[in-house]
Amino acid sequence: MRLQGVSVEAFAKINLGLAVTAARPDGYHDIETVFQSVSLSDTLALTPLESSSGVSLRVHGLSVPDGPDNLAWRAAEAAVAEFGCPGVSIDLTKRIPVAAGLGGGSADAAAVLVGADALFAIGAPRETLLDVAAALGSDVPFMLSGGTALGTGRGESLERLPALSGVWFVLVTPRFAVSAGDAYRMARIGLTEALSFTRVNCLAVREGDIPTLAKGLRNDLEAGVLSAYPEVARVKETLIAEGALAAVMSGSGPTVVGLVKDEPAGQSMLTRLAGRGWDIHVVAPIDVGQRVTPIENEPVG
Ligand code: C5P
User: Fold this and answer.
1) Active-site residues: which are they?
2) 180: Cβ below 6 Å to ligand 1?
3) Ligand 1 nearest atom to the CA of residue 30, by list position
4) Is 19 helix (H, G, I), strand (E, B) or coil?
5) Distance between the two ends of the chain, CA-based, in angstroms?
6) Which amino acid residue places its CA nearest to atom 19 of ligand 1?
7) Tens-place pLDDT, residues 101-122
8) Mean pLDDT across 162-170
9) Which domains does the chain have, with CATH numbers?
């Protein structure tokens, strides 16, 4: 039997609080954040390009580059270089809003690394995967395992937290992109108290204490983005006015996450928020970064 390909479901992430603690000499910022995988995904079908060590990428759904500007492409190149595997053909079905603070590009990159590892039975050591992921982007290491985790450093240093339950999320994305670089340039650094709010959030996550988590949610990238893009402030106000337990921008935005108690509460909020020109997704927390399934097996010889 020969594995013909793998299909990878690559989950988006949200940030349940994000503290920017310092600007670094390398141009990045030190942060503390609680990453959470959610049930909104892209799908990547990976098949071998037997005759070459190149990369081929086709994109369906939302519009993203189909060349080296796409992080999935660069992840495939890195897999070929680091794992010595054959080239990869990728069919990417894009659903996660782009440059929206949901880690879609990072999820796709991690999916390519994990997918190529499975497709070619490489068995790459965890440390190698993490190193390759960190070189691709700050959020990619988290996306390898997903679930719930405290991220520090530039986001690549991870500590797994217990799976979150008892809460759903309404993701509201205005239809414009915000570059992470711009959001960090506008960041208000050092707003965070000595006992960082992300530590408080971590404790709340560990104890499954949703009210405390909701009360403690802050994102140091939010003030800058909200003043540059007033529409994001309107989204946040609307989510609170419509009864969200809390509303906080995810990562570098512009997506705002509204916390709700369950799926019916999320669906009812979606109905009330419809027709305002925002993309809305009602999602649950997920405890993995991706799911890999074989596409097809065919007998050899
Ligand atoms: O690592 P990644 O390529 O995703 O980061 C995109 C941009 O976001 C960086 O070039 C940097 O400007 C900013 N960034 C940062 N500090 C972080 C993560 C990202 O300043 N911890």
Assistant:
1) 13, 139
2) yes
3) 21
4) strand
5) 9
6) 28
7) 999 999 999 999 999 999 999 9
8) 97
9) 3-160 (3.30.230.10), 168-283 (3.30.70.890)
